[in-house]
User: Which sequence fits this backbone?
């Protein structure tokens, strides 16, 4: 059995694919996977870390706002469709699985053309443009939140036949290997102090420039309160040598698991993949959503569940962030409440549900 995973451009769209692939491999060791993504994102490194075969196609990023590059998109899409068609004809997968990345669109339409079963997963509450463009040809749609169901059932109006059996609420997949982190290994690898609080900063596989600048601006005072493991993103590492600061451009799965194990608190964007990880690991979380994006809706959802400290980007400065971290170091009751709140956020069997759905489609 062969399964093609379609996603890339960011680690957030690839993490659920890898989580499901790992779950399937534990139950069906002979299943083979191919991850198709871009050459510019972190997905190739992520695939290699999981010993998965990787192939790249031209990235066709679809924008909801006016941009001159949108006029080139149809031509780029045709090229990406042809590349996808060739990969699918050669690989001959039994099923294609995507999780909302713009990379998946030409792959999924080429798969439909070749009559290959398709499953797409909607991570965020707000429907992604990529999934909106793929919903008509998908054999099955899984969603993290019940609120997302209505988006799929009404988005194509009179041209869309409502089929509730096609959409399934599952929760979001989680890479279970991240629960295997070793705090002692992290202490040695990142040269941490054993008696000092640890802040883990995650900007995703491509990094978050605002978070990177924020941490660098905070370093003189922040490192007096906590030690920092900072994942900057590929090509965005700072040449900063300071006590209690440990910068790294990319964390593979093993290093990320160890970093989570060592972290007393985590600073992150509001992508659903990292929120899912924080929820399963019950981490005290400070979330700064990307402005003017679906992440702001994710942030509001976290606030409604009392699951994290959510701060709009325009309201955060080096001074008030440093002050917040100092307060959190000593606010044990608040820490416990937030950890419990985020721990209740996600169903724990999402990965298994989606894995079973893919296997059933592939076997047909």
Assistant:
């Amino acid at each position: 059995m062969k399964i093609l995973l379609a996603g890339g451009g960011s680690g957030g769209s690839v993490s659920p694919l890898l989580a499901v692939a790992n779950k399937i491999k534990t139950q069906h060791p002979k299943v083979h996977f191919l991850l198709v993504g871009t050459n510019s994102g972190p997905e190739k490194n992520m695939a290699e870390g999981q010993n998965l075969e990787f192939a790249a196609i031209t990235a066709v990023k679809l924008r909801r706002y006016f941009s001159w590059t949108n006029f080139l998109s149809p031509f780029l899409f045709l090229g990406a469709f042809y590349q996808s068609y060739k990969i699918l004809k050669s690989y001959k997968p039994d099923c294609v699985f995507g999780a909302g990345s713009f990379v998946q669109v030409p792959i999924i339409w080429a798969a439909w053309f070749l009559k290959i079963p398709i499953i797409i997963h909607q991570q965020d509450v707000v429907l992604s443009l990529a999934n909106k463009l793929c919903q008509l040809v998908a054999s099955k749609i899984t969603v993290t939140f019940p609120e997302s169901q209505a988006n799929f059932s009404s988005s194509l109006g009179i041209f869309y036949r409502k089929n509730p059996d096609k959409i399934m609420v599952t929760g979001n997949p989680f890479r279970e290997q991240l629960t295997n982190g070793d705090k002692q290994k992290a202490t040695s690898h990142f040269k941490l102090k054993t008696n000092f609080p640890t802040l883990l900063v995650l900007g995703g596989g491509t990094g978050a420039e605002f978070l990177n600048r924020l941490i660098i601006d905070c370093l003189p005072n922040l490192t007096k309160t906590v030690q920092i493991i900072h994942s900057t993103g590929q090509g965005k590492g700072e040449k900063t040598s300071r006590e209690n600061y440990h910068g790294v451009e990319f964390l593979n799965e093993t290093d990320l698991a160890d970093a989570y194990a060592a972290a007393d608190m985590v600073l992150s964007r509001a992508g659903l993949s990292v929120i899912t990880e924080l929820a399963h690991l019950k981490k005290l979380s400070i979330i700064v959503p990307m402005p003017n994006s679906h992440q702001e809706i994710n942030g509001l959802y976290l606030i409604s569940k009392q699951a994290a400290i959510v701060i709009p980007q325009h309201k955060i400065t080096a001074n008030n962030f440093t002050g917040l971290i100092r307060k959190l170091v000593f606010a044990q009751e608040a820490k416990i409440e937030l950890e419990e709140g985020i721990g209740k956020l996600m169903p724990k069997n999402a990965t298994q549900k989606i894995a079973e759905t893919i296997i059933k489609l592939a076997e047909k």
